[in-house]
């Protein structure tokens, strides 16, 4: 029962992240990318601090190490995605970001020699094909922005993998507080370097970034961490690829994008990948601790 509730929880995360595409688009109308990052992670740090304050006095060295690694991976994912978006198209940015789906099982194999079921591998590639159909246009050239977006995918892949590694050992609330705080500090450093402290957002911009900070960051990453106790990292990555499906649906409903046959085929493939991957048996492996 816990496994199926965890799967539903991860699906809910993708719904919220799908709405985050629209919120980010609205926020970018009056805020720079790194201003959005420092506000969303600042809100996340404060809220996670309030949620976990009773546990913070007992933070162990292992939890601190794990949270910093998660925060660095999360920051790398968001930072490279945002910068890469300035040099490539949104569709290619979305597709290349989603390649983290196929990176996660290979990271698990390389680091822990953890075998992945055939259904898991097939599901991962089906998800990538679905995202590609959903996102890509005829322009398949590869440039600097595309390379940065691939680095972003590596960051998100490690964030998903490390979450699965650490969540069974450490407290989810503490991990998320340190993760958010690390991402906030790194965002602040970049903002200082760029000299973008003068924040002047519209009402729409503030409402959008409030959604990103409270719902799309604090709530979802706490839920993701808790749910990955019961869903292995490969299946979690495939489920989280549904973010692109809900991002498309919200773009149609809110931004009034036109529905196409290509969108429908891509969405169906991703849904099929999630069902296939989650019908596969769980794979286990003996692992050595990364942080103690």
Fold and architecture overview:
The protein has 292 residues and is an all-alpha fold. It is built from 12 helices and no strands. Helix 2 runs antiparallel to helix 8 (172-194) and helix 4 (90-97) runs antiparallel to helix 6 (118-135). The longest helix is centred in the first third of the chain and has 26 residues, at 2-27. The protein is globular, with a radius of gyration of 18 Å. The relative contact order is 0.23.
Total beta-strand segments: 0
Stretches with pLDDT under 50, minimum 5 residues: none
* Gap between N and C termini: 31 Å
Tell the overall outline: globular
Q: How would you state the average pLDDT, rounded?
A: 82
Q: What structural class is derived from the secondary structure elements? A: mainly alpha
Number of helices: 12
Quick summary of this structure?
The protein is mainly α and 292 residues long. The protein contains twelve helices and no strands.
Protein traits:
12 helices, 292 residues, mainly alpha, 75% helix, single chain
SSE inventory with pairings:
Elements: H1 2-27, H2 33-52, H3 61-85, H4 90-97, H5 100-112, H6 118-135, H7 144-166, H8 172-194, H9 203-227, H10 233-240, H11 243-254, H12 261-277
């Amino acid at each position: 029962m816990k496994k199926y509730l965890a799967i539903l929880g991860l699906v809910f995360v993708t719904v919220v992240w799908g709405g985050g595409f629209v919120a980010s688009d609205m926020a970018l109308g009056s805020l720079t990318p790194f201003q959005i990052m420092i506000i969303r992670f600042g809100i996340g740090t404060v809220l996670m601090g309030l949620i976990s304050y009773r546990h913070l006095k007992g933070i162990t060295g292992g939890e601190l190490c794990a949270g910093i690694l998660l925060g660095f991976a999360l920051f790398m994912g968001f930072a490279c995605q945002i910068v890469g978006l300035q040099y490539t198209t949104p569709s290619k940015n979305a597709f290349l970001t989603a390649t983290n789906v196929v990176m996660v099982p290979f990271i698990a194999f390389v680091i822990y020699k953890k075998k992945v079921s055939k259904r898991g591998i097939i599901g991962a590639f089906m998800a990538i094909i679905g995202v590609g159909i959903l996102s890509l246009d005829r322009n398949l050239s590869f440039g600097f922005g595309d390379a940065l977006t691939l680095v972003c995918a590596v960051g998100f892949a490690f964030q998903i993998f490390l979450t699965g590694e650490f969540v069974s050992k450490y407290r989810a609330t503490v991990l998320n507080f340190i993760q958010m705080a690390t991402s906030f500090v790194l965002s602040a450093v970049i903002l200082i370097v760029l000299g973008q402290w003068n924040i002047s957002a519209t009402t729409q911009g503030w409402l959008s970034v409030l959604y990103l900070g409270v719902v799309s960051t604090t709530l979802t990453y706490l839920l993701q961490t808790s749910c990955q106790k019961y869903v292995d990292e490969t299946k979690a990555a495939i489920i989280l690829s549904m973010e692109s499906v809900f991002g498309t649906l919200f773009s149609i409903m809110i931004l009034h994008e036109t529905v196409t046959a290509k969108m429908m085929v891509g969405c169906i493939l991703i849904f099929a990948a999630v069902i296939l991957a989650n019908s596969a048996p769980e794979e286990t492996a003996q692992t050595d601790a990364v942080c103690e």
